[in-house]
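Q: Given only this backbone (426 positions), what sequence would you predict?
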């Protein structure tokens, strides 16, 4: 029996998306093998970022891409010090999770401990050859976890991120027990093994929203660096010369040296921008940040708690009224305010020294690009860039009397450049 026209028309109606059949794409790839290494001497100089150990290797890539769910995992293992793994998951574009962990090995150089003959100056110099056969290397691991989530049905997103870096291994530490007095003292250049155990943690919290014609963004960042290996401490000979009391004098004893101080960084950022499409696009940003020194030295103190304060601002304007003309203006501003330490030292004479005064800076960068294309095969382009740097506390200093002495840096630096070009369009 022939079908009616109404039945035929019903069959042409498309089903709603929720009732349509969406194909899910899946892919799985794996590999496995074994690595062999054979070398003579310090092969790390030829393979700086290679973990030189034989062993099994394997990898996996698995992806499932559907309408609502998108899942990808990717990873490879070459050794305990050389691997990576990456996992990402997206649910309908509203929730995104990203996890990543990776590690590589860095072979470090070993410098000779011998002392050139040029470093005599009437005193006796010698090199320490205790660790001349040592090999140095460092494992660097990075871990990342991030989440981007839409807040209900509102056009607001929550952004969370955690990042960690770990450095483990051993490096060469070269330091000297030296001075030009007394002339009979023996000056030694040491080469020692230094344990590396450093850790950096960073956390980010932010929001972004679409509020009509303006999209606001806010980010808060905190980063903490810690050196778990501590500060090296060794014995040094006395450096005392009664004939020259103006020299820095030091009693003999055990001293901390070559510190890598802990530190903390915190920043607040606010950004605003209009729609990225249209004849006029405006964007602006402001960041306030502080970086603090968390030194743990006690024999030489004064740096702990010192802070650098940073202010950065940016503004962009893009104007495109028609396809023949466009104008882009950019402005960048940065201020750095550095605190200055008064150093106190035990077993030293004098016991107080004025550190070099921190140089404060203000920098502005302005750039403009204008493009005019009256016909399809001809373009005129004009560019301007200005870079202006201002410094404070630029006068040189005498660390013993805190008086100015010597040369100083310029307080102002200006750089401007402009160009006008025309050419047939390709």
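A: Predicted residues:
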């Amino acid at each position: 029996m022939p079908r009616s026209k109404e039945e035929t028309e019903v069959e042409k109606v498309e089903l709603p998306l929720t009732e349509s059949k969406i194909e899910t794409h899946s892919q799985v790839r794996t590999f496995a093998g074994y690595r062999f290494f054979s070398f003579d001497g310090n092969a790390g100089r030829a393979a700086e970022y290679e973990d030189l150990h034989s062993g099994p290797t394997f990898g996996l890539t698995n992806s499932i891409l559907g309408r609502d769910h998108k899942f990808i995992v990717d990873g490879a293992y070459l050794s305990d010090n050389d691997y990576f793994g990456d996992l990402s998951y997206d649910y309908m574009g509203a929730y995104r999770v990203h996890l990543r962990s990776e590690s590589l090995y860095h072979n470090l150089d070993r410098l000779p401990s011998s002392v050139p003959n040029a470093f005599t100056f009437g005193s006796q110099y010698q090199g320490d050859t205790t660790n001349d056969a040592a090999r140095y290397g460092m494992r660097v691991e990075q871990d990342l976890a991030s989440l981007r989530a839409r807040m209900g049905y509102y056009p607001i997103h929550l952004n969370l991120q955690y990042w960690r870096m770990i450095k483990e291994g051993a490096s060469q530490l070269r330091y000297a027990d030296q001075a030009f007095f007394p002339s009979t003292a023996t000056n030694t250049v040491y080469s020692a093994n230094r344990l590396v155990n450093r850790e950096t943690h960073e956390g980010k919290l932010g929001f972004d929203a679409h509020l009509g014609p303006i999209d606001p963004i806010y980010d808060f960042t905190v980063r903490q660096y810690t050196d778990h290996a501590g500060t090296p401490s060794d014995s040094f000979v006395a450096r005392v010369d009664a004939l020259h009391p103006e020299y820095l004098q030091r009693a003999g004893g055990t001293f901390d040296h070559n510190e890598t101080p802990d530190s903390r960084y915190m920043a607040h950022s606010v950004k605003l921008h209009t729609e990225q499409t249209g004849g006029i696009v405006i964007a602006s940003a402001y960041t306030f940040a502080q970086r603090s020194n968390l030194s743990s030295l006690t024999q030489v103190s004064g740096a702990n708690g010192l802070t650098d304060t940073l202010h950065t601002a940016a503004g962009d304007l893009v104007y495109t009224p028609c396809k023949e003309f466009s104008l882009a203006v950019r402005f960048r501003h940065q201020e750095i305010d550095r605190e200055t330490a008064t150093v106190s030292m035990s077993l030293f004479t004098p016991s107080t020294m004025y550190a070099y005064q921190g140089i404060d800076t203000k920098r502005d960068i302005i750039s403009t690009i204008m493009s005019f294309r009256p016909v399809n095969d001809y373009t005129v382009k004009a560019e301007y860039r200005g870079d202006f740097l201002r410094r404070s506390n630029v006068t040189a200093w005498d660390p013993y009397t805190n008086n100015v002495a010597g040369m100083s840096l310029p307080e102002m630096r200006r750089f401007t450049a402009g160009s006008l070009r025309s050419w047939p369009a390709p």
